[in-house]
Amino acid sequence: MRRTVVAGGSLAGLLATRVLHDVADEVVIVEPDDLPDGPRNRAGTPHGDQFHVLLGMAQHLFAHWFPTLFDRLAAAGTVPYPTDDARMFLDGSMRLPVPGDQLMPVLRPLLEWHVRSEVLALPRVRLVRDRVVGLTAGLARVNGVRLASGAAVTADLVVDATGRASRLGDWLLRLDFQPPPKRRMELDLGYATMLYHRYPDQRLDNLFAVHSLRSAGSPEPGVSVVAPAGPDRWICTVSAYGKQRPGRSISDFRARCDREPAAGFAALTRECEPAGPVEVHRFAHSLRRDFHTLRHFPAGVVPMGDAVASFNPVYGQGMPSAALHASALAAWLETGEDIHAYFERLKVLVDAAWQTSATVDFALPHVPGQRPRGYRMMHAVGAAIDQATTADPVVAKCFADVVNMRLHPTALLHPKILARAALAKLR
Ligand SMILES: Cc1cc2nc3c(=O)[nH]c(=O)nc-3n(C[C@H](O)[C@H](O)[C@H](O)COP(=O)(O)OP(=O)(O)OC[C@H]3O[C@@H](n4cnc5c(N)ncnc54)[C@H](O)[C@@H]3O)c2cc1C
């Protein structure tokens, strides 16, 4: 391939660029934001101030493409926490620690800046500051992009990595192709994040990182996390749905920490001083675009990352999904198969992540929509497995592998896991 264009210079776009660099003479990233020369957030990633965790599969794939990335993140204060130092709670009960597993909290602007530095240092990558506004086509295939500045860039392949607000459907319509059908799950989720001062090696409730899930049956469902953001800061995020969404007031933030069932949050507000304002973010809905259902699709363009599917962020599936999409892109380019082969790979990945998040989210009473057939049973089984992670090490290990996207969610339905979950419930 001579030239490829990647629309969007965020994490999915950077991962696509890394993969395309192996097969193309030139990769052009088109990004409208003025990208900061440092770990600072920017307009195109409004969620960048919120807590992010890098799940196991993402850690694995990022390390594969960027072998020195984690050393550089560690030098900047990002450290993975083994299970002795980080704990996960479910409604205040501790999930059993899984030996070998590690929680990797990351400041998103820091991660993106390091990945971007590595990608832009690649010899055949060029960054163009502009916005993609459409596709150009000829002889039944896409052959480039149109830019807001009025310029056009020709390409053998265009990758849409413009995130969940992707306009690829509109661009396809203008070329007389159908847009992909969309599925939405209304969530009305609110995140609020604050930085707190931290003294070196400070622990909270004797831990470095605490992750607390309040399940759908609890009075205030959501997730809270506290973890170091470097040697002298804690980052703490609280979240809730609908009318219970957190606001911008520090006293509200503090009250939420104080009523968290996991003790580390109250320790934070008791022992540490705020180091910044409350940053909020609203996540209205999960979304997937089912490209695999399209019979006709032009050659020369592919979507990836949040432009394909964007899930409830409390499950931390966004970056591992983007990395898995990049991996699917690499495999597809290597085989030279038809575009539908790429969409089938995406379908398997999106189905798995959607299954994990949607099964749990349908239990939230405020989420509208028809539950799938057999949902009550599915939910009861899921809740029993979830509960068993606080009592049975084998279930806890399998659950951790699914959550970290190392195993498909159906692994939890293995008879051995179901039997152990039932036994744990009886006990
Ligand atoms: C509150 C919140 C918390 C999250 N927490 C986690 C977490 O803990 N772990 C995790 O793995 N994931 C998390 N995610 C998801 C994760 O941030 C995303 O999956 C990740 O950023 C990858 O997204 P992306 O690159 O596909 O899209 P985005 O990050 O949205 O980037 C899209 C890019 O495209 C650019 N762009 C837009 N339009 C155009 C255009 N027309 N032309 C060119 N460029 C364009 C934008 O400027 C931007 O740079 C969270 C998300 C949210 C909202």
In brief:
This protein is α/β, with parallel strands linked by helices. The chain folds into 3 domains: 3-44 and 56-74 and 109-183 and 287-358, FAD/NAD(P)-binding domain; 77-108 and 186-284, D-Amino Acid Oxidase, Chain A, domain 2; 370-426, no CATH class.
SSE layout:
Blueprint: E1 3-7, H1 11-20, E2 26-31, E3 52-53, H2 56-65, H3 69-75, E4 81-82, E5 86-90, E6 93-94, E7 102-103, E8 105-106, H4 108-120, E9 125-129, E10 132-138, E11 141-147, E12 152-154, E13 157-160, H5 168-174, E14 182-197, E15 209-214, E16 222-228, E17 233-241, H6 250-258, H7 264-271, E18 279-289, E19 301-303, E20 309-310, H8 318-335, H9 339-361, H10 375-388, H11 393-403, H12 415-426
The structure holds flavin-adenine dinucleotide.
Overall residue-averaged pLDDT value: 96
Task: Give the CATH H-level superfamily of the largest domain.
Answer: FAD/NAD(P)-binding domain
Strand order of the largest sheet: 6-5-15-16-17-14-18-20
β-sheet strand percentage: 15-25%
Biggest sheet statistics? 8 strands, mixed
CATH topology of the largest domain: FAD/NAD(P)-binding domain
How many β-strand stretches?
20
Q: Helix proportion of residues, in percent?
A: 25-40%
Overall, the morphology is: globular
Describe it.
This protein has 427 residues and is of the alpha/beta class. Helices cover 33% and strands 25% of the residues. The protein contains 12 helices and 20 strands. α1 runs parallel beside α4 (108-120) and α10 (375-388) packs across α12 (415-426). The longest helix is centred in the C-terminal third of the chain and has 23 residues, at 339-361. It is globular, with a radius of gyration of 22 Å. Flavin-adenine dinucleotide binds at residues 7-13, 30-33, 44-45, 47, 50, 52-53, 58, 131-132, 161-163, 191, 281, 283, 305-307, 313, 316, 318-320, 322.
